[in-house]
Amino acid sequence: MGWRSLGLLVVALSLPVRAEVAEIHVAQQYGLAFLPLMLMERDHLVEAQARRAGLADLKVLWSKVAGPSVMNDGLVSGSLQFAAVGAPALATLWSKTRDGLGVKAIGAMTSYPLFLNTRNAKLKTARDLGAADRIALPSIKVSTQAVMLQMLAAREYGADQYARFDPLTVGLAHPDALLALMNGTGGVNAHFASSPYHEQEMRIPGVRTLLSSYDILGGRATAVLVSSTSRFRAENPKVYRAFLDALAEAMALINRDKMAAAKAYLGLARDSRDSVEDIHRIISAPDYAYTLTPEKVFKTAEFMYRIGSIKVKPASWKDLFFLEAHGLSGD
Fold first, then answer.
1. Are 225 and 105 members of one domain?
2. Most buried residue, 25, 108, 154, 208, by CB count within 10 Å?
């Protein structure tokens, strides 16, 4: 080894090893789908996994927000490191950031149906939706519900009519949407709801379901997944792994004892509208699953590419997920 090479080696060895971040910020939305994250917060599962990896002082901040728009902005700005969003929000940021920040999913989290509920007695099918109707959903255009409506419109009226229902949508967090539907606030007479808000709405006289997201997608599908950035993953591999392992741990806790999970949800969500039996029934149904395996994520991304919502078409679902998920039998 020459003197120049030896000198460079000495300099390299003398440089301090860049530490991983000491604090992360995680965002989620409202509802039963986010129970794994709620358990991770309650039981400090990420911090425990980080300690096992030699990171003793990791601090985890948790936030609840109304919809994916805020979370996408947070990932791009760096104010969020992990965000629980739907497939449309993931596909949008993946397409926009693939040559830079590199937003991808670390894994799926919850597969469950979304229900288009209405109190408008004149609505028999989605084709009856008109200019006077207002559909509450978490975020206009980018939420899973918004894209489901676009897929529905394209199916019913032709591909060029995919935006037909967009003017009818109103962005509201699920708890606010429930109240708006109940009271007719702002003209809201429909809600594309998740559980347990769907089940609560079924108890309101005159409210009924027009269809579900499974009717649109053709079967069980991922409704929530967790995303991060390639930059964060590369710079903080131990923290990233600690979060992923904690997510898997939380899902295992739920799937091992769903009655205990139902009790936990009621307390953590401060849900006084539902019973333990109500929640247990929902999460025990075959169309509801807490799993890292993606379901029909690629189908949603393909549709978004066809209508021009994203500019790059993924070759498969694996393009949208980090390497750790590639061994799963997803689609």
1. yes
2. 108
Do 204 and 148 share a structural domain? yes
Task: Work out the mean pLDDT of the chain and round it to a whole number.
Answer: 92
- Helices and strands, number each (H, E), in the chain: 14, 11
Return the residue matching tokens 């927000």.
65
Structural domain span for residue 133: 115-217
Do the Cβ atoms of 315 and 270 come closer than 8 Å? no
Name residues whose C-beta falls within 8 Å of residue 264's C-beta, 6 or more positions apart in sequence: 35, 38, 39, 42
- Which of the four pLDDT bands, split at 50, 70 and 90, describes residue 8? very low
Adjacent-strand bridge partners of 289:
111
Structurally, the chain folds into a number of domains equal to 2
Q: What is the CATH number of the domain that holds 145?
A: 3.40.190.10
167 and 303 together in one domain: no
pLDDT band of residue 7 (cuts 50, 70, 90) is very low
Q: For 64-113, what is each residue's pLDDT tens digit?
A: 886 677 888 899 999 999 999 999 999 999 999 999 999 999 999 999 99
Query: d(Cα 129, Cα 114) in Å, to the nearest integer?
Result: 18
227 belongs to a structural domain:
yes
- For 165, the 3-state DSSP assignment is coil
Q: What pLDDT band is residue 18 in, cutting at 50, 70 and 90?
A: low
Rounded (5°) CA angle 243-66-98: 55
Residue 143 CB contacts under 8 Å (≥ 6 apart), including other chains: 67, 68, 86, 88, 89, 137, 171
Mean pLDDT of 319-324: 98
13 occurs within a structural domain? no
163 and 100 part of one domain: no
Distance separating alpha carbons of residues 194 and 190, to the nearest angstrom: 13
Q: Are residues 149 and 179 part of one domain? A: yes
Helix axes 276-284, 258-269, angle to 10 degrees: 120
Residue type, 175: P
